[in-house]
Amino acid sequence: MGKIANEVLVEKLAGRFGDQVMPLNQDFGLLAVETTKELITDVLAYLKQDEELKFIFLTDITAIHYPELEKSIGVIYHLHSLTTNTRICVKVFLTADNVHIPTATNLWEGANWMERETYDFFGVVFDGHPDLRRILNVDDMTVFPMRKEFPLEDPNRIDKKDYFFGR
Amino acid sequence: MSDIQLVDAPAGVEGQGFFATSLDKAIGLARANSLWPLPFATSCCGIEFMATMASHYDLARFGAERISFSPRQADLLMVMGTISKKMGPVLRQVYLQMAEPRWVMAVGACASSGGIFDTYSVLQGIDEVIPVDVYVPGCPPRPEAIIDGFMAIQKLVQTESSRRRNEPKYQELLAKYGIQ
């Protein structure tokens, strides 16, 4: 089995979901498609269970924050088909006031920790997750540190300059 | 003359067949020359400490041959490396499990001040959770610097009054950290 061409992927997804799954770009040959949170479970299940595609390996779930966009928080799924060595990236964009998305743990057990990490750093709430706790940061933290809502460090401070540390 | 260097006897009264000194000094001498360190090594400074323990620098010369991995028998807690906020309670528990008298040495920029990790997840110096006796600067400090810090600890141990740990001032210090 060779690598599946991106055009074939786009065609198959369009045939199954119509204009509900839109191709975004193909940077570095990796196809990225956008969908909605209502459809994400169906899209992932289709990609995983389709006889030809077989995207059985969930590489990663993460998120991204674009403060300037109306739908500022994107949840990103990377899938890998081990049989055809094809990769695909699925994105869902959410508004900051309602960051809820259905969990992927019923498709992949491995999604458990990935979703906990995404919740920990971006505050994305995965509905239906069996145990949505912080995974890396301290439990009593109230902020989501990877969101771009914190002021940058004062560039003029000198108390951590190299020469204080013998470097 | 041999090359063997002996530790000087403390100040005292000497005569034929006897030597009298204060109990403080005798105990200080014994403690300072058999410190049992507990290495709490989390990152690069820990590697530097391994070099300090190895044959070339040989921390065993100072009576620190027995590295105590049980806090109960340790005198000196050597914190080497970045302590994240999540590690803070663990470090504190190790400190609480050590028996008095106990000393703490913060080795390297991270343990002393958070170092380059000026971040939401890193403790900006271990003195936020436990009292510290000696800070060793450097990133990472060379073994010589660690030995220098160790000798500074020895000086503290040698001159410490045996009543110091019962004084109200010391109790106040511990109370500041919420201990007892």
Structure description:
The complex is a heterodimer of chains A (167) and B (180). In chain A, 20% of the residues lie in helices and 25% in strands. Chain A is built from 3 helices and 7 strands, in the order αββαββββαβ. In chain A, a hairpin with a 4-residue loop joins β4 and β5. The mean pLDDT of chain A is 90. With 180 residues, chain B is α/β, with parallel strands linked by helices. Chain B has one domain (36-177): 3-Layer(aba) Sandwich (Rossmann fold), CATH 3.40.50.12280. Chain B has 6 helices and 6 strands. In chain B, α3 links the parallel β4 (76-80) and β5 (103-107). Chain B starts with 12 loop residues before the first strand and ends with a helix. The model of chain B has no long low-confidence stretch (mean pLDDT 90). The chains are: A alpha/beta (167), B alpha/beta (180). The interface between A and B is small, with 11 and 11 residues.
